[in-house]
From TrEMBL:
This is histidine kinase. The keyword Phosphoprotein applies. The keyword Ion transport does not apply. It catalyses: ATP + protein L-histidine = ADP + protein N-phospho-L-histidine. InterPro entries: HATPase_C_sf, HATPase_dom, His_kinase_dom, HisK_dim/P_dom, HisK_dim/P_sf, PAC, PAS, PAS-assoc_C. GO terms for molecular function: kinase activity. Its EC number is 2.7.13.3. Residues 193-247, 321-373, 470-523 form the PAC domain. CDD domains: HisKA (cd00082), PAS (cd00130).
Amino acid sequence: MTPPEAGAPFHGVDAQALLSALPDPVALFRPDGQVTLNRAAQARVHQHSPSGDWMALFHAGSVPPIRDAVQAALSGETRQVTVQVVDTVAPGLLTVAPTEDGALLHLHVARDPLEVALELMDGMGLGMTVQAPDTRILLTNDAAARILGMTQEQLLGRDSMHPEWRAVHPDGTDFPGETHPSVQALRTLQVQRDVPMGVYHPGEATWRWLQVTAIPRRAPGASQAKQVTTVFADVTERQQMQAEVRRSERRFRSLVEATTQIVWNTDPAGSLQPPQAPWEAFTGQTPDEYRGAGWLDAVHPDDRAGAISDWQRALETGTLYTTEYRLRRADGAYVPMLTRGVPILDERGQLLEWLGTNTDLSAIREAEQALKVLNAELEARVQTRTEDLSRVTRFSTLLLTAAGESIFGLDARGVTTFANPAAARMLGYSIESMIGQEQHALVHHHHEDGTPYALSDCPIHQTLRDGQTRRVERDVMWHAQGNPVPVAYVVTATHDTAGAVNGAVIMVQDITERVRAQAQLQDLITDLERSNQDLEQFAYVASHDLQEPLRTIGSYTELLARRYQGQLDPRADQYLHFMQDAVTRMRSLIQDLLGFARLSRTDLIFEPVSLDELMQAARQNVQGTLTSGGSQLSWDTPDEVWGQSSLLTQLLTNLVSNGLKFHRPGETAQVHVTSRREGDTVHISVRDNGIGIAPEYHARIFEIFQRLHRRDTYAGNGMGLAICRKIAEHHGGRIWIESAPDQGSTFHLTLPAVPTP
Ligand code: ADP
């Protein structure tokens, strides 16, 4: 190699640096056989020979000429050799030049346009293969491998007839290898363009849809193809979208077909041109029959004029065509049709055609008919319902009219909206004169005592305000004549559909009679009380005044007895005895009567009284009976009562002595007294084991002079229990008996407990 000339551009440049920067592979061979590679050479050689053997870059046929060139360089000669490089289709140019200590080899490989194309296609996501005449795959890119679901290595060397290809046509039929576009291109030397092909993707176990173009390559002048280049795109997604579009279009179409019987189109002039398959199918007309305006023959003769004029108007104005006519079906029947046609314009507004539809109206007519029937039925039902309603109304009117009670209806402001005849009668107004009037102002303006009745106090208006039902037992309403009518009433709110109070119904009872009866009763009670007082007065006066003559009779009877006893005949002695007896009894009767009459409410002075103390006093009073007859008296009376102790002592003495007196013959009398506090009262029971009293006498024994036995069996005046009852009642208490013959008796007594301050 000649040294660079002084002043030349590479003067002083470090050869080492230059070599390593060079993108082409460069090798330095020394005479001793050692080889040094630049960076580009190392990268390329190592793909083919792990040991870094430079010669591995070349096909075997190129190795001898390279060796020759090296030898020549070592002896000072520069040579250029054309070589076959293993990883490139295009031949390389190797320049071998002598250096100071060996030979320098520089390899230049022109890039094959095919390789460039492969890369380009890859970048666009298109698969590309290059196949030899025997269909073996020589080259392929990454995209092809990706689309077909294989590695490049698996693809290289495979031919189109390989049994593992699985390909189909769009209709699903098999797509054999010998018919693939690449094979066709090789055979026919014609470009096969955009052939659709389904290829099975083994990795995803799905079918991929490809669009395949195969381009044959022929060496200049040769009659056979040298190679075939196949480019394919994965259109699976596009295919799916198109299928989706087609599906929805079909759906839309079937919808259209379902709703319209016939779709037709005419040229811009309005002339019907074949083919019009739906029209033919429906009418049975042949293309020659309906062509132009022939279709009118299928329209009912009576409807033709209307159809023509509507059609012509639409054609002239270029606006919507709509008409109705009967159209003859292929079987001869006329079907009512709604016909619509629209002008179709292009983007410049130029009329392209008329597109029209005929809709079978018979379904609509049927629906209309059904609707009519339904309507009639509905009307009939409404009619029945109205009759029911008026029956109910009549009935309630009847009820209102016939009701003995007065009934008013008020609106939310208290204005009378209805009144029944009873109401009118009760208050002396006509129904008409009450309706429209404010009820309160008309009939409810004053209280019974003549003071004004404020609206805010009126229970009816309170109900109008709060919706609560109210019952008023005593009030007055004013008669037209000006007198008050005593009334009781119930006022009930009425509600609108939203639930708000919109008025009230008042049912009023005239209680004049009731009030009168009450007043009469009160009068009767007053009368009775007065006559009772009179009686008591009389009894007192009588018994008091009777005492004096009785005392006289008694004294003289005694005198007579003392003086003539035993001196007259025996019968006179007996008469004297009877007289004395009668006087004694009379005295005791008068005393009892006097005692009874003296009992007067006004004299009572109440104080807390211990029942135990009362019982002790009562025992004192019956002491004689107890000691003589061996009778027993016991008590358990821990309570205190509110009353007058002298009267209560008398009461208890009477009960206890009766209990002791009315004992069963041959049995010892036993009387037990208990007390129990019951709320505001004390309940006292006096129980004996005596002869008992049959229930039918239970009430009678408390009346004066009522006795159940002969005096010679049981002594007494029949005043004791009458006095007991009077004392009990004067204390605000009650007395009653619980007894049956031979079962003993229990007298029950209630007295007020000591009031708590
Ligand atoms: P009397 O003065 O006759 O006892 P009462 O008014 O005390 O009058 O009694 C009226 C009648 O009630 C008695 O005659 C008697 O027939 C009946 N009676 C009163 N207490 C008893 C009793 N504990 N057991 C049976 N009968 C009784």
